[in-house]
Amino acid sequence: MATDVKVPALGESITEGTLAQWLKKAGDTVAADEPIASLETDKVTVDVPSPVAGVLTETVAKEGETVEVGAVIARVDENAKAGAPAEKAVETTAAATPAAAETPAPREESPVESEPDHITTLSPAVRRAVLEHHVDPSKIKGTGKDGRITKDDVLAAAEAKDTGVQPEAKAPAPVPQPPAPSKAPAAPGERKEERVKMSRLRQTVAKRLKEAQNTAAMLTTFNDVDMSAVMEARARYKELFEKKHGIRLGFMSFFVKAVALAIRDVPSVNGSIEGDEIVYRDYLDVSIAVSAPKGLVVPVVRNADSMSFAEIEKTIAEYGKKAKDGTLTLDEMQGGTFTITNGGVFGSLLSTPILNPPQSGVLGMHRIEQRPVAVNGQVVIRPMMYLALSYDHRLVDGREAVTFLVSVKEAIEDPTRLLIDL
């Protein structure tokens, strides 16, 4: 008897998700609690485990399909034998021609018939790479788990095609509408377009950013900061720090501590507006913007004001790894009170960050650049960084915003302030 595999609870207020990828195919043997599919929600990617050990006999939903919480997406038979469903699939698709797989005739039609299946069964990242490089996925030998095609496989195939290693790899197909024209290289001067459906995460990011613009009275104030003292401290203690704590000393922990110090003097930057009330907090939960393969995510470092430098660095490093692997949970990305984003890692010199509702403040860091500055009447070269604070002017006055940003600047330029609470 087959057991239904249902969409699990995805978090508070989330009722549906998108089936991003099947990790197992019909006929595969699965263990209890082994992930068989991944679901993409508005915020995270969630694995769907098999409730029992057995054979995956049927997949009900297709990749890219929207499924509701509690919906059946597959069935696992505890008594079936591996490989049996594959034969059943041939019978249902072949209908009245069960011997078609043994005859050579269908091989001429397979390039056209099978190509959509190859594309729709790929992961979103691999599918995009296939479309970008105009390669035939049916000609690529997968090196991933269970023979799945990876992005590196696609890039290798594209490189081989560009270098002329396989110019005749594609067999001619005597059918009315062969796929070759859509995959042919663009002619000189030809203008092409590509349409890719927005992921649920990207749709949510777009909605929230527009919501921030429509709701908050956003304003941005700027300052620059001399990074000499922090860079000197980091260079002096980085080896001892890593040896003792097992993590590298980065710049982010200095800025988190500086923000925690500044918020004590300007609590409104850490507050929020709820209806006709203002919520002030005596704690700091910092949302750290992290770039993930599917978009920007903001995991939360909770109680950052009471954490040590090492604890902050370890938490951020752990979140960075989870973001890369797509294993961040909803709880880890909810409830932030203030956001820090570092566009400098991508080379940004200056920007105006957008608020993360319902927060009232976001600090933007940028790249460190050697610039001439005046110090004690002398022009010297110093490692400088522009800082940008975007804030909700409904709650935070201009004086408070400037005071907050100057406090951060002073703490970074003189890190001793972080130790003696000045």
* Helix-residue proportion: 25-40%
Total number of strands: 19
Mean pLDDT: 80
Shape: globular
Q: Under the CATH scheme, which architecture of the largest domain would be assigned?
A: 2-Layer Sandwich
Low-confidence stretches: 85-120, 166-174
CATH superfamily of the largest domain: Chloramphenicol acetyltransferase-like domain
What would your notes on this structure say?
It is a single chain. With 422 residues, this protein is an alpha+beta fold. It has two domains: 2-183, Beta Barrel (OB fold (Dihydrolipoamide Acetyltransferase, E2P)); 201-420, 2-Layer Sandwich (Chloramphenicol Acetyltransferase), CATH 3.30.559.10. Helix content is 32%, strand content 23%. It has eleven helices and 19 strands. It has helices at 84-94, 110-120, 124-133, 151-162, 180-183, 200-215, 228-245, 252-265, 309-325, 398-413, 416-420; strands at 2-6, 16-22, 29-30, 35-40, 45-49, 54-59, 66-68, 72-77, 218-226, 272-274, 277-279, 286-288, 290-292, 295-297, 300-301, 338-342, 361-365, 369-375, 378-392. Strands 9, 12, 15, 16, 17, 18 and 19 form a seven-stranded mixed sheet that branches. Strands 1-8-6-3 form a four-stranded antiparallel sheet, with helices on one face. The radius of gyration is 27 Å and the shape is globular. Residues 85-120 and 166-174 have low confidence and may be disordered.
